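Consortium newsletter contribution from the modelling node. Members have asked for a concrete example of what our holo predictions look like. Here is one, prepared for the adenosine-5'-diphosphate complex that several groups have been discussing at recent meetings.
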Amino acid sequence: MSLASELAVPPPSKIRLVGVSKKFTTKRGTVQALDDINLEIGDGEFVCFVGPSGCGKSTLLRIVAALERNFTGMAEVNGKMITEPGRDRTVMFQEHALFPWLDVLGNVLFGLKLKPDLSNNDRIEVARYYLKLVGLDGFEHANIHELSGGMKQRVALARALAPNPRVLLMDEPFASLDAMTREQLYGDLQKIHAARKKTILFVTHNVREAVCLGDRVLLFSPRPGRIRKEFKVELPRPREFNDVAMASRAAEITGELKTILAPGIGGSTSTIRPR
Ligand code: ADP
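And here is the predicted structure:
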């Protein structure tokens, strides 16, 4: 495989979930983490999952990543059943999970280990390309412990992007960062989404973050974990975190979220399709 084809933008992916349910049984009892999730996500769509803790957002992301395989229902990417993790779907977590014994370049190269067709020089080119894309040009040989939290998450993002996945799965990737750093990353992630055309699933607690980034925001409710409501966000991009129209869309979703948090109000299952 040539370097140019490796760096080309691959077609994004469609995701289809039909009747997905997941139960966890522990010593303390059984939790219905997800109940009858029906969802279609379009090519290149940026979809955010929001909702209180424990409503199954991460579990759903893990099912798409095939990190969680024991569930009922059907999960497909591009018409193909999801049965195992693949290079077409990479995951980025809240904790950066970088290897402290490797430098920045080494960490991104690690994400390219499973690309046997590339020469060592090509791997380095690919890793440098993604480090530049996330704004870390010139930091190739920095040690991980020398980096700020935001820079570590940028390395983690470069590592997730380097295998050139068609789907990027992000689980609260910015939750531990300060507000200023997060806002910079919102801008950068929107640029990367526009340039690399990935399908992105993004889990967050932060409604404003979801509205800033998503084409759609799916609001989850707990016990059992369900999609309570979907909100399309049709505001122009790039979106600024402090934009007034965005704040007002976020307030609308927060209003709905409060009805979930209020005791005694239940949710309903719905079938959600792409735009
Ligand atoms: P969220 O991401 O919305 O916070 P999760 O998907 O992490 O929610 O969890 C949904 C529910 O499933 C929670 O009640 C959680 O405690 C439970 N759960 C998640 N993973 C496990 C696990 N490995 N074992 C037992 N229960 C789990």
